[in-house]
Design a protein that fits this description.
With 190 residues, the protein is an alpha/beta fold. The protein contains seven helices and nine strands, in the order αβαβββααβαββααββ. The relative contact order is 0.11.
Length: 190
């Protein structure tokens, strides 16, 4: 979604991913091509593509059901194949629908280049923990309320004050900036 929207806004974008050899994958590849996203690092595998169904209620709260599919097959080889694209990027966005080990490989590669490449890590879907090594590799760390609660073991992140405390705790782990989204109540960033 991020690559598509950035491309629509005029940015030069690429997607590093795996898709299944199914109708979803076929449609996704065609859509990406039509929008102008570089898909040279999109691998196709036998089986199903990853899909997510998102619903939003009247309070702007979302519920997401994720089926990993081909996303679960992202590996270090895919990152190695994308090395040239990653090395020449200005911004790289990560999310947790692929294996954590693959994200870590890419983050280490990017930070090891000593280039001015901004890394954005969207910690979705939620997880109970992330390795301490991850946080200093991330320039902008983004979570919603429930992701912050789960990652930090907090009882509640519902208010701006709660989100500010959560952002401070996450920044203390080494991120340069943290964004905590609050649904209809906006976002807190530090």
């Amino acid at each position: 979604n991020q690559a598509v929207m950035a491309a629509k806004l005029g940015a030069k974008t690429a997607l590093v991913a795996k898709l299944g050899k199914d109708t979803f994958g076929d449609n996704y590849v065609e859509n990406l091509k039509n929008i102008g996203v570089n898909i040279s690092c999109v691998g196709r595998i036998e089986g199903a593509s990853g899909v997510a169904t998102i619903t939003v209620d009247d309070r702007a709260e979302n519920c997401i059901v994720i089926v990993g599919g081909a996303n679960n097959h992202m590996d270090d080889e895919a990152i190695d194949q994308a090395k040239t694209i990653l090395e020449n990027s200005k911004v790289v966005v990560f999310q947790q629908e692929i294996p954590l080990s693959t994200n870590m490989t890419a983050l280490r590669l990017i930070k090891g280049l000593n280039k001015d490449i901004t890394t954005i890590y969207n910690a979705a879907p939620a997880t109970n923990s992330l390795p301490d090594e991850l946080y200093p590799l991330v320039d902008i760390f983004c979570v919603n309320e429930s992701e912050a609660e789960k990652l930090l073991g907090l009882e509640s992140v519902k208010s701006v004050d709660d989100a500010s405390k959560a952002a401070g705790l996450l920044r203390s782990k080494g991120c340069k900036m943290v964004m905590v989204t609050l649904g209809a109540n906006g976002v807190v960033y530090q």
